[in-house]
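Justification of resources, computational component.

The compute hours requested in this renewal are based largely on the per-chain cost of generating structure records like the one below. Each record pairs the submitted sequence with a full structure-token output. That output is archived, and it is also reused by downstream analysis tasks.
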Amino acid sequence: MTFLFGVSGGEFIIVILVVLLLFGSKKIPDFARMLGKGMNEFRRATDEIKREFKENTQDINEEITDSRQYLDREMSAINDKFKEETKELDPYNLDKKEDREKQEETTPNGDAEDDSITKKEDRRTGSVSREDEIVD
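The structure output for this chain reads:
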């Protein structure tokens, strides 16, 4: 039977007997108290170190957050400017097609005539395959 850290029951009893012989029965409670105080002191020290670390790195975290927000805004502005400049270079009107698809997803479908008009526009701007019906 493994008790703790690979120490079996018999080995644990031997360790207890050695501690009794070295310290005596009167000093064991004092030893346990001293060990408990040491553990509490260690916990307090680690908690204090963690608290100080958080306090000292708070400024850095705020700076990183501000930088990230600034970079996100700049990237969005660059992306918008890029789309604006390349709009004229889009021979298939892909941006307009994506905008229509987004609009159809957000708004309910209209009349059947409206759907056929957009299908005709899509056929005129996109490539034609054998499966497509040619409607004029």
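The radius of gyration is 37 Å. Confidence is low (pLDDT under 50) at residues 110-114.
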